[in-house]
What does this fold into?
Amino acid sequence: MKKNTFVSRTLKLVTAVAIVPLLISCAWILQGEAGRYTKTQLGLFPEHSQIIGLIRSADNRHFALIIANGEKQQVIVDGQPDPEVEGAVALNTVRFSPDGAHRAYAAARKDDDGARCFVALDGKRGREFDSVSSENFLFSPDGRRLAYIAGKGDKRITVIDGQPGPEYDLTMGVRFSPDSRRAAYVAVMKKGGRFHEFQLVLDGQPQPVFRDVLEDSVVFSPDGKRVAYSAMIDLNQWVVVVDGQASPVYEEILPAYPVFSPDSQHVAYAAKIREGWFQAVIDGKAKPANQAMSKILFSPDSRRVAYSGRTAGAWRVIIDGQAGPNFYDGDDDSILFSPDNRRVAYLVRDGEGDKKRVVVDGVAGPEHDGVLRNSLRFSPDSRHLAFIAKKGDKEQVVIDGQAGLEYDAIISDSLIFSVDGSRAAYVARKEDKELAIIDGKPGLEFDKIANLSFSEDGAHVAYAAQNGAGALVVFDGIAQAEYDVIIPGSPIFNRDGSHWAYTAVKDHSLTIVIDGETQIACGKLLCPLVAPEDNGFKAITVSDQQIWRIHWRP
It folds into this structure.
């Protein structure tokens, strides 16, 4: 089974689920006008129990503590305890729903016959099984449904909405449709001692049996009404099943297919038709074959489609069925539609050397010594295109054909536009220092910069920085007070962009700073949760062993 992993640029010593050792008391300090705060008690913080885990909700509005007390464990959410477990809570299954309104986890209790496993949803225990898998343990997008895989002896059962499905030798690939109304998973049965019979189970109904069904290929359309997947009939005989109808047989269906268009009306995949030859298939219609292909991409409005192919040594991009100019080589997966669907950009090499060009709206730009993969960016208003180019051993950002200053390196994932497209920013490396370039102007130099971001209205820009043993936030080019650590994810803006906040550590004490002045301190405890509001922020803090929700408003 594949697992998605990611690496984020963070400042030192703290992770998103860091646990700081518990002290008996916490300071409670509000510097500013008292009328700006609403303080609501949520519950008590466990003073003497051993904390073994902390999980935050995705919206940063809730947190779950997992505590141990002898042979018992317990989950406490925002200060409200779930019933104790006479065994262990599986930490890697503790989940909040996407909206933070519900939580679930798997746990095991001990009895005379060994351990019995169950899933608790909002504190209520479900039925017991021999085992519960941490894989395929998920909420639906709307947070109202829960699915997981349980074990009964050597059989596997998919449980959806608390209802166990049929027993199989193996189940995998559980997923909900984007509208949360439908669910699917892949079920497998052994034949002759080997996994041989695969089938999709859709909305509880088994679909036709194949020799293999690729779990990663199962996809719902964005509106949730359609489903497609790739399946193997026999060795080197593959089909794509769309809405229950199988395609012609191909030697192979390429990975990451099939795909639906954003409006759910179209489906595409790439297939191998014979050794060394591939073709795009869009809405069941096969396109001319190519000796190599990139991914097939729909425009945001679903009206356009593009992919690249190579034939007889010539590489070209096919947009809306029309092949563009021939190039010596292309950069796979570099094709990019603008948000308004009108523009297309991609990366090419037009000779046997290493020089690269960016083609925008069908016109090839000037040569560069190189262009960083996946660095092409259209602004949200579609008017501007930016990318990172190499010039000798230096790198520079090119915006609308205008090259910026040269640096030792550009941090590729830092290149951003403001929402209105009028401003651009990125982080550059100069020798052993990093600096933020805002609207083409270099800022202060630091050891490390993270979380560069514009406010929603584009009027402000902020980032976190590490400087020697200290850390700080820079707001509109002005360095703020220095702390030991700035918590990853900081700074943040409220939803209209008029205020900003960050969480910092000083002498092991945590503090929320708002607009560079107001401070909410919560002692030496855990990372306080801070979430943006339309006109302010919400936070969870702890003082005097009590958990509080704070609403700060301007």
